[in-house]
Structures are given as structure tokens and as C-alpha cells.
Automatic annotation (TrEMBL):
InterPro entries cross-referenced by the UniProt entry: GH, GH_1_N_CS, Glyco_hydro_1, Glyco_hydro_1_AS
Keywords: Glycosidase, Hydrolase
Signal peptide span: none
Membership in a protein family: Belongs to the glycosyl hydrolase 1 family.
Protein name: Glycoside hydrolase family 1 protein
A family per Pfam: Glyco_hydro_1
Active site positions: 373 (nucleophile)
GO molecular function: beta-glucosidase activity
A GO CC term assigned to this protein in UniProt: cytosol
Superkingdom classification of source: Bacteria
GO biological process terms, semicolon-separated: carbohydrate catabolic process
Amino acid sequence: MQHQQLTPFPQGFMWGASTSAYQVEGAWNEEGKGPSVIDHAVFNAELSDFKVTSDHYHHLQEDIALFAELGLKTYRFSISWARLFPEGTGEINPLGVAFYQRLIDLLGQYHIEPLVTLYHFDLPWALQQQGGWSNPETIAAFEEYARTAFRLYGDRVKYWLTINEQNMMILKGEVIGTLPADTPDPQRALYQQNHHMMLAQARAMIACHQMLPTAKIGPAPNISCIYPATSRPEDVLAANNFSAIRNWLYLDLACFGRYNATAWSFLKEKGYLPQITDDEMALLRQGKPDFIAFNYYASATVGADSAKDKPESGAANRAVDQQMAGIDRSVYVGVDNPYLQKNQFNWYIDPLGFRITAREIYERYRLPLIVTENGLGAFDELASGNKIYDDYRIEYLRCHLEQLQQAISDGVEVMGYCPWSAIDLVSTHQGIGKRYGFIYVNRDEKDLKDLARFKKKSFFWYQQVIRSNGEDL
Ligand code: BGP
């Protein structure tokens, strides 16, 4: 049903925008920062690396002033664990501490609410060398780091996110995860890592509630609704399986402190079961989120394995596989969705799927939701006079916001919306050329140019959206 009588966006809605440390800060080895797994990752040689990115570290004042001009009520950023603890644990880096103090103070001056991700893909390299998330000691290191962040910034930061897209780190472990290349039985190892991350998250949530009784904390997975390829029951079952493995495994553990039954049976069947103890399960039940943050870019469509023999459409299937690597084809086969358009990078565009996803999450967990990523990656062009006419991005965001308001009208409790990204930054796999920001950063893949900031057309559009509390979309 399409609501004609729309419920307005709530008063105090957290209109925001997002970034992450390794994609925006630069200063990768400055002022005491230790290396992270990202600094050791091997990416396409012709694309940007993560050394300078948007050089936000050296443009802090300017960038936050621009965010204030944009009208942001909230700004989601991540702390670089290795900037605070160059070795991942132990000695703290005072200059790293001071950087985030400055950032949070500046946000305070402009009345922008910080929404802080503790860990966004960039595990300190020192910890990775000791086994990373395969090593249970990383759980204690994360808790120490989280407690430190709460102690340092908890007087001004009320909203915390634990781990960004843990599900993608597991599903695409070889690409963005922390699995050493030569690990035997990689899938089993990944699900053991997953269990360790869940424990780390639970400990951080418990610590947050102990130390900062008025603060709120939640997980930030990438969740998307899964469509069956057809109404054939086998396809519906495949979609149901995939949703359990991709989505609910993570949120059921975070919210209910138990393994999703379907996902558990998949792990068992495949021989991927993690080692767990009763005490650990008790800890998982104890750590409770206050809200659910989720990132949404696209829906996915799958069929049963008997479709395995069907020829796959190359580009279409790549789009499907963006978010599906790592799962055995006997459980699902990614298929094209002929009803949806794709962006320049072959990602589906599905605003209605956004509404469906929000409803599914809310019905399942009954916790307030906040959208922590949603956006369109595109090759923006710098026109004369340093103008960027990104009407396609406005269109993408407008359609998604319309559906978010439909979801709110359905009764879903939504606290805020933080599209990706506040400012151009380096895409995790596709360089700076794949831009998402409201603010253009003047650089190319290899040529850093002057790193000047230019407001895109979408900047002025979003400014008006915020000003009108979502009435003028
Ligand atoms: C999410 C990540 C972000 C960001 C975004 C866009 O998975 O949390 O860090 O990278 O996806 O993806 P990409 O950069 O690959 O276009």
C-alpha cells in the first residue's frame, strides 16, 4: 500500500551523512598513527590508495564548517583504532586522541550530534599480525579500545556504533576481511572470526551501558531484503536461506543473543560451526543494543541451486555477487532482477526494497532504526565554474527518502538517515572515481591536484531537505 496520508519525519530526526576514517582522513602514517589492515591491502594499482584520500585530517575545520552549512544535525564518522592505539592495544597515541577531541569539539560548536563508529574495516595491523579476529585476544583488545573511546569522548558522544558491516567482512572475507591469505579452511575460520567479533561487540555494548548510562549503542550491518527469483517454492526457500545467512545471523546474535536456527544449520551442514561456550552465549544474551543501524544500497535476488545450470548474465550477476560472495552456490544462486535499474557500477537501484528492508528489520526486532549508509556511487564530472550537476544522485536519494517516509508511515520507528557520504572519499574497492559525496574533492586517482572542496548540486538539495525536515524532497 502506498500511503497518501504520510506521517511526517519525526521532530528531532537525525538528518546526517557518513564517512569512515580510512576512506576520508588520509594522514595514514602521521602523528603517531599505526598501520591498519587497509594500509597493507593490495588494491588495483591504477586506483587511489588510502594514504591521502580526502585529506580530511588536514581539512578538518573547513570540512566541518561545510557540514554545518549543509545543515547536518548529525555526522557519522569512525575512529581509526590504530590512530588511538598504534599497536592495537597498550600505549595510547596522544595526538590521535587530540584529533578526535578537535573533531568532536568542532561538531559541538556547530550543534552537530556525533555518531561514532568504533570499527570500520581498519583493524590495527599489529593485531592482524597476531591472528586478527581469529585470535580470541582481539576481543579483549577491542573492549579496551572501546572503553577508552567511551572514557575519552563519552561526555560529548551519545550515539555509538560497534562494528561496521560485520556481515560483509565475513561474506567477503578475502576482500575486506581480516583473514590471512593462506588460512586453511577459510570459511570455517571466518565464522570463528564472526563469533569473536560478536563477543567483542557484546562486551562493548555492556561497557557502554555501564560507563555511559545515557548513551546509546548499536550494531551497523549491511541489510537488504532478498527476493526469490520466482514463486517456485525452491526459489523462495533459497531466498529465505540467504536472508538468514546474510542478514539475520548477525542481527539475531546482536539483539537476541542466539544463533539464527537456519543459519546455524547451514554452518553445521557445511562444517563451518564456530567453537562456542555456554559462558560466551550468556555474554551474548547480556549485551543488548539500543537501536539498529543499517546500511542499505541495493536488494538482492536469488534462486535455488537447480538454477545452477542456467547461463549467468555476466554484468547482472556481478551486481548480484557484489554482496553475496562467500556463500556456497548450493544454498542460492544470484540472479538478475529485470524490474530494477542499475547504476554505473552495476549495483541495483531499489528504493522500494529499502522500505521493505526497514519493515523487515523493525518487525523482527522492534528497535528504533537509523540508516547509516545509503547512496549512489557515480563518476561525477566537474563542469566549468567548478560545478557538479549530480541530478542522478538527487534522484536516487529522493526516491529512497520517499520510501523511508512510507516506512515511517507503515509504523517503522526511524531515528535518522545518514547517507553515504558527507564528502567524496575513496571507495573501498573502486577508487576516488566512484564518488558518493555532497561535496566534491578535487583530485583524481593518482593526481592529488589541490584537494579543493566544491559543493555539488546535491548539497543544496539536501540542505533544503534538512531545512524542511523532509517536507521538500
Ligand atoms: C559499504 C562500506 C563503506 C563504503 C560503501 C560503498 O559497504 O561500509 O565503507 O565503502 O559500502 O561501497 P564502495 O566504496 O565499494 O562503493
